[in-house]
Structures are given as C-alpha cells and as structure tokens.
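Below is how a single chain appears once it has passed through the pipeline. First comes the sequence as given, then the structure the pipeline wrote out for it. We keep one example in the README because the format questions we get most often are answered faster by looking than by reading.
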Amino acid sequence: MAELDLPLIWAGIIGVAVILYVILDGFDLGCGILFPLTREEHERDQMMNSVAPFWDGNETWLVLGGGGLWVAFPAAYSIIMPALYVPVLVMLLALIFRGVAFEFRWVAKPNHQLWDLAFWLGSTVAAFAQGLILGGLLHGIAMEQGRFSGGTFDWLSPFAIMCGFGVVAGYALLGATWLHMRVAGDLERRANEWAKPLLLALLGFILVVSIWTPLHVERIAALWFSWPNLLYLSPVPVLTLVLAALVWKGLDDKAAATPFLGSVGIFVLAFAGLAISNFPYLVPPSLTVWDAAAAPESQMFLLVGVLILLPVVLGYTVFVYYTFRGRIRPGEGYH
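Resulting structure:
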C-alpha cells in the first residue's frame, strides 16, 4: 500500500510547494518586472520595500520543490535536470543577481543605476526562464531506458518561448495587484492601470496553452474533450473567467485585496489544469510518479522530516506576512 500512496503524497507536497513558490515569489518577481514602468525614485523605493521583508522567505518553497523532487523522485530528477539544465542555470543566476540588488541598491545610493538594472533583469530573466522550464517539460522530454536521450537545447521551442512570455505577464499581474493592495499614493494608481492589460495578456496566454496542448498531445485532448470529462472539468475554465471578472471589477472599484486574491486564484486554476492534463506523469509523456519514486523506506523517512519542518515554515511565513501587514507609503520601508 505504501508503494502506491507515498508517491502520491510526495507528488502532492511538491505540487503545493511549487504553487506556493509561484504565487509568493511570483508577486515579488512581478514587482521587479514592472520596475522600468516608473522613473520616480520614491516609487521604485516603494516597490522594493513592499517585498523586502518577504522575498527571501518566499524562495524557501523553490528549495522544497526542487529538493523534494531530488529525494522523493530521483529518477525524474535525473532526467529533468540534464534536459532543462540551461534554463534552470539561467534562472538560478538571475535570482542571485536580483537578491544581490536587494542588498546593494540601498547602500549604493545615489549611484545605484546598476542595481536597478540588476533587479529588473534578474526578475524578468528568472520569470522567463521558469516559463521555459514549464514549456520544455510540457513539450515532452526524450528518454530511453530511463535516461535523458535528447540534446542540450531540446527544450527550446516556440511553445516554451510562448510559456516564457506567459509567465512574465502572469508574474507582472501578480506584482501589479500586490502593489495595488500594499502601497499608497501615486504608485497605487499606476499599479491599478498596469493590472488590466496584464490580466488580458495572461488570459490570452492561458487560452493559447489551452488550445495548443490538446492539438499537439492526443491524450490531453481525449482527457478534456471526452464525455463526461468535459462536464466534470468545465469548472476550471468557467471559474477562471469568473475570477478574471472579479479582478477587473475589483480594479474598477478600487478594492484593496480582491484583484490580488483573484489573480492568485487564476494561477491556482491554471496550475490545476496543467496537473489534471499531465497526471500521473512527472516527466511527460512516459515517466509516472510511481515509475520515478524512490524506495518506500526512503520516502517515509524523508516524509517524517517534512511533516516536522513544514509547519515551522508555514508558521514563520504567516508570522512575517502578519508582522509586515499594511500599506507602504512614500518614504517608508524596512531597509
């Protein structure tokens, strides 16, 4: 029984870690992506200060997701990493440059233009690389006898590039709605204006992926467009449109939290749609969670550690967000 249940439990843990990373690090990457849209120094300070207490803790979930894949599904890790090594390396380097910018921008003032550039480029390149990773994984990875058998740049395809731009647009939407909720002054108004076209862009990318994947992958088409699956799965696109309407209305009504929470909901539904399309494959189109799983003894041993540490991580995450609640006004910050 453990051989069947443990891989599903670990897949759930990794899935939760990934979606939490996408949401939490997504909005602070989004703030970096939006950085060039204002030239006002105090507004750029507000943008960085709105995420300064959170950004490094948000990346805990990236470590849990990647580390969990390595220890719980080593066969999948050994295939995914060589297949996607280039975009993974680019993502990590971009995150490093962005992290350094947080620390150095303040001490370098007034000559901090280099760190402004590092913050913007690091955020944008990291988001784009994550889209390339997603696109490369969904596109399928060539493997033979349990090993990666493709080339270094197999991940580079029009679909992966489109996913890269889609992730950038989505993170920018999270960043804009976060700023709409967390800052005061002219920047709040600007963020409200940025959010609407970004919402339309994200919906456009979701639509393209929703059409592209079933057209190119027969099993996905059969899953979503056969009866009664069409009925059972219809809430995913319907709720996505409902949340998009709530985000738009929240922006019109100047509601503080509705646009951000609605944008988070859209990301959760998009992730659910991808999970539904690809389950039970960890490495589409051939390696399932059971094929890639470590020995049950190893998974159980590691699960005990995760069950002890996960409440701690969740606890300090809630504590930090509660402690630094409230809006950031011009001239305020935590640096």
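The longest helix spans residues 2-33.

See the next section for the split statistics.
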